[in-house]
UniProtKB/TrEMBL annotation:
It comes from Microbacterium candidum. It holds the Pfam family M20_dimer. This is Amidohydrolase. Residues 205-280 form the Peptidase M20 dimerisation domain.
Length: 423
């Protein structure tokens, strides 16, 4: 084990020394959330801080991605990834620094923006760990590659960075690490080998009809009626076309159609999200969506030139942790935090991620993704008393990161890096 008692003590002391600055940075990021591929301010914060610490920095990888590289002699190469984007959610956490930001999205719609998934904490943890590595080069050897990734929420950022030339800039790592907030008590973390998260796809379905007056629906081909039927029938794909022992989720996250009470529009847009573990299940859902939608549209006698348009957007395969690396890190965390703080066995979750897609063509990179508790232990305990699994979840308006999780997450990130790079 490379994470010695000396290294643990050094990490704890260093993080404690700059916790106030870390919390201040976290609050600043929280107040200035940005959606995927719009993270210009956040990327600048990451790039500027890494430059200050002596990292070689490259910006604009995959639109707004940032990479910092710090070389410290011979040794392994470890890539650490933090995602930077926020959610189109109106925050209702009650925090004094809650986001009030609203933006106009590329499609012209206006939405609230807030860090209701904790990516502001992810960035803060990485920058705190970056400072530890820069100031204590006596504790490690090798190459640290720190990645500020855009657009995790639409599941497009990792792929964009790889396609944008990530591996023309950085060496192929021996190991890769990512961390994410979890609605668990501060001081606990999940470090489990095997499949941790589901695969996902984002699919837009544009139903095209013929608009008309609300008083004369028979003279139109109502896309809202078609969309409503499709939403209901999509659930039969999961309920009646897929083995009940398999895992499949099909969610319609948004429907955009029309503007006035008395006007039938000519289009309706459905935004779908799929979750799956087996590729065959994914293919069956996609085929079913086409069959159901096309069948409904033909029932309304829509002409061939107005058939639905299907647009595949972001997507990711299931996230699978390398068992040996997960075990190694779990042992290190147990030594630093105590065995009771480390969850080594965890059921696969239907949440999804694209961190592992940063491997690009290098499938043999060892990879582990950690889930880090960010809830006040008393708040968590009270939720359990009330019969809740969690007091709140990511993407909900009530989600927030307890400030005690800022130094704890920074310590965990530093423990992980020094376990793999430590001397």
């Amino acid at each position: 084990m490379a994470l010695t008692s000396t290294a643990i003590a050094a990490i704890d002391a260093a993080i404690a020394e700059h916790t106030d600055a870390d919390v201040e940075r976290f609050i600043d990021l929280h107040r200035h959330p940005e959606l995927g591929f719009m993270e210009e301010r956040t990327a600048a914060v990451v790039a500027d801080r890494l430059r200050e610490l002596g990292y070689s920095v490259t910006t604009g990888i995959g639109v707004t991605g940032v990479v910092g590289v710090l070389r410290n002699g011979d040794g392994p190469t470890v890539l650490y990834r933090a995602d930077m984007d926020a959610n189109a959610v109106a925050e209702a956490s009650g925090r004094p620094y809650a986001s009030t930001v609203r933006v106009v999205r590329p499609d012209g719609t206006e939405s609230p923006v807030a860090h209701q998934c904790g990516h502001d904490a992810h960035v803060t943890w990485m920058l705190s760990m970056a400072q530890l590595l820069a100031e204590r080069t006596d504790l490690w050897a090798g190459t640290a590659v720190l990645v500020g990734q855009p657009a995790e929420e639409p599941i497009t950022g990792a792929k964009a960075m790889v396609e944008g030339g990530l591996y023309d800039i950085v060496p192929v790592p021996d190991q890769m690490i990512g961390m994410h907030t979890a609605p668990m008590p501060v001081g606990t973390l999940v470090c489990a080998g095997g499949t941790l998260m589901a695969g996902t796809d984002q699919l837009d379905v544009l139903i095209r009809g013929a608009g008309g007056h609300g008083s004369s629906p028979h003279r139109s081909k109502d896309p809202i009626a078609m969309a409503a039927e499709a939403i209901v029938q999509y659930q039969s794909i999961v309920a009646r076309m897929i083995d009940p022992s398999a895992t499949a989720v099909l969610t319609v996250g948004a429907i955009h159609a029309g503007a006035d009470n008395n006007v039938i529009p000519d289009e309706a847009l459905l935004k779908l999200n799929l979750r799956w573990f087996e590729p065959a299940v994914r293919e069956r859902m996609l085929r079913g969506i086409h069959d159901v939608t096309d069948g409904i549209v033909r029932t309304y006698q829509v002409t061939d030139d107005r058939m639905p348009v299907y647009t595949m957007k972001g997507g990711s395969t299931p996230l699978v942790n390398t068992p040996a690396l997960s075990t190694r890190l779990a042992d290190a965390f147990a030594g630093a935090l105590g065995e009771l703080s480390v969850v080594r066995q965890f059921p696969a979750q239907l949440g999804s991620e694209d961190a592992h897609l940063l491997k690009g063509p290098h499938d043999d990179i060892d990879f582990t993704y950690l889930m880090v508790g960010v809830v006040d232990p008393d708040v968590f305990a009270e939720a359990r008393v009330q019969g809740k699994d969690y007091p709140y979840t990511q993407h909900s308006p009530e989600f927030y990161v307890d400030l005690a999780a800022i130094p704890m997450g920074a310590r965990i990130a530093s423990y992980a890096m020094l376990e793999l790079l430590g001397v």
